[in-house]
Design a protein that fits this description.
Distance between the termini of chain B: 40 Å
Oligomer: heterodimer
Order of helices and strands of chain A: H
Helix content of chain B: 40-55%
Radius of gyration of chain B: 31 Å
Radius of gyration of chain A: 15 Å
Largest sheet of chain A: none
Largest interface: A-B, 27 and 41 residues
Number of helices of chain B: 4
Number of strands of chain B: 2
Strand order of the largest sheet of chain B: 1-2
Number of strands of chain A: 0
Shape of chain B: elongated
Structural class of chain A: mainly alpha
Chain lengths: ~35, ~220
Amino acid sequence: MSRSGTIAFLLASMVGAAVGIPLGWQVADAVLGTG
Amino acid sequence: MTDDPSRSRLLVAWLGVAVSAAGVAASVTVVYLAMRDTMATAGGFCARGGPYEIASECDSGTFGLLFGGIVAFLAFTALHVAFSTWARGPQVGLFAILGALFLALGWNFVDFGLDPPGASERGIVFGWLLPGVVFWLIGIAFLAPAAMRARDWLGRGGAPEPAPFSPALVQSVFAPAIPAPPASPPGPSAPPAPRPRPVAPTRLVPPGPPDRRPPR
């Protein structure tokens, strides 16, 4: 994998995690009623 | 198969890595918050079902979040590892994910162990603080190899890991097998047929085709 591919791979993981955390937070808030 | 995956394969893999990372992060967040809610409202323990009277019954939402979050975590983690391997990316994700999970859940124990919810006069609760420290130690134990693998991977510029085994230095040479004698109908006084001699290596030579081996 090239250097640009390496950076894209890391970015994909970080963007996914950055989207997933608030998503999970919203789901938990909606279910638990703490939001 | 070439060493570098094709561009279309990389695009699919990056998309899969991003989606699975989002699923992992969302499921860890859900489990973290459900665990926190259980610790704050039910003292850290609840149960559902069964023939006995339950003093602290689980809320259906909490139960669903914990159970569903754990199942989703396992599924998305497996997906992330699969996409990383398919794209020949770094084999870091599993260790990093497990490390983050234990650090996050350990924080719940440490936080409520130092500042118990609804009972400020109790002071430090070592029953929660101790598992929190253990969770953090486990998390660090997972993150350390993840960091080392990530450093090696970046140092190689994204190249795949080298083969774990080096090529053979020597090769054994076997003596020609002694064929068994032709089968003959055993007579009443005929001795039993001798067994073929077991074949054992006679010497070790550098690997290569037979015509390039050194003479005896």
